[in-house]
Fold this protein.
Amino acid sequence: MGKGFFQVPTAINEPVKSYAPGTPEREEVLATYKSMYNSSVDVPLYINGEEIRTGDTGTMSPPHDHKHSLGTYHKAEQQHIQKAIDTALEAREKWANLAWEQRAAIFLRAAELIAGPYRAKINAATMLAQSKNIFQAEIDAACEFIDFLRFNVEFMTQIYEDQPDSTSGAWNRLEYRPLEGFVYAITPFNFTAIAGNLPASAALMGNTVVWKPSDSQIYSAKVIVDIFKEAGVPDGVINVVYGDPVMITDTVLASPDFAGIHFTGSTHVFKDIWAKIGTNIHNYKTYPRIVGETGGKDFIVAHPSANAKQVATGIARGAFEFQGQKCSAASRAYIPKSLWADVEKFLKADIKSFKMGSPEDMGNFITAVIHEGSFDKLAKFIDQAKEDDGATIIAGGGYDKSEGYFIEPTVILAEDPKYTTMCTELFGPVITIYVYDDNKWEETLTLVDQTSEYALTGAIFSTDRYAAAEATKALQNAAGNFYINDKPTGAVVGQQPFGGARASGTNDKAGSYLNLLRWVSPRTIKETFVTPADYRYPFLGE
């Protein structure tokens, strides 16, 4: 099952377009945004190539303009989930037996469709329904999604090429079979690329999928479905359902043919799913693969040798890009007293320069948080910080949901390194800073490591190489993606495989061959050319 004589196109990271004033891409995406804003879509379930409309609908609205409707989506009943499972199982045999290069060609075509005719549409959909500014949409919905599709094909061929040694008397080979059953993909609101990659990566390796996108990402998920259809993904390979997440998950996990889950979302939900899988383990035909990327309480630590302006920029970008709604967003920072005055000055100046509003205005760096539930949670923590002794809001602290779910980028200065917002995942534009004594560098590293149950991303800033090496060692278990002199966000496919451990997930590294290995079940085949005809070994004598 090796690559043979086929040479796949070399995977190269998709260049990021600038969208600077006057550029063609800026005008195209703005025109597409306006057209989609003024249109109303009706999003059906997508099962076995059939569009199913149940009549039980939900409304899709821009977070920055929540009184406006972009359209509706249809919610599944249990019978539809069972139909999706049955369809995936029926499609599996033909799809699994399709030559690998045929599957690869489909997803390479999808990448080119995104790079070309669908680029403005998938970016505009992400801007509208997930409230990303154009740069955040471009690096996610276009570039990262394209990179996932292209690099996954390259990773697949690397896996298939990995074959065991053989001898003159026997030929040994590995067959990388898809899992026996179907894969369940649950995807989040915050990255369109993740929403597309989780079902696509499993499907590329020959699996069939039941995919449940987040209710807050269905608008751009519909664009992904259109792209996959045009690229030639066969009916039944990726089936898309929306609705009650508990009902959908319980129905999926009750199936004896459930073979794996590809998940990105909250830690609590993932742990509940893991527990349900354990409860049902005796019903399954195989041990399910459980792959998940969950929460984070990501950090920035500055050494006294760090450059204050660089630290402030790392905080401004790491904490507030996409309103702090990246799994990797910085939400706690540790700054030495000797640097704090300068870091505070530069950070406040940056925040003061931020513009906030609709992503249609490309001068806006900050837009809205995803929905009212997120808004209310963040407002509650901000209000608590205003009342608590030992916590001071030094920037931001305002919020308004009259038109959109807008939270000002907020910086809390905490006297206690274990203050609640130093420990609790907030998933919004709020960062808490603790100022430590310069002579307590080692103690601070221990504090960073022991404060959070999570271990997703983290960054240290230092011009002292010994300190950088010390932090890299001391924080080896605190972050699956670790950054030196950079913000803790922005992992690039093929360059920084992404994933964390502890309560942040199974660390199966999306954007690398490691993730794809979870979606195959290898079979070893040994073929002997001259088969023995006598059981006796020489040690037995005559």
About this structure: The two ends are 43 Å apart (CA to CA). The longest helix spans residues 134-161. The chain has 16 helices and 23 strands.
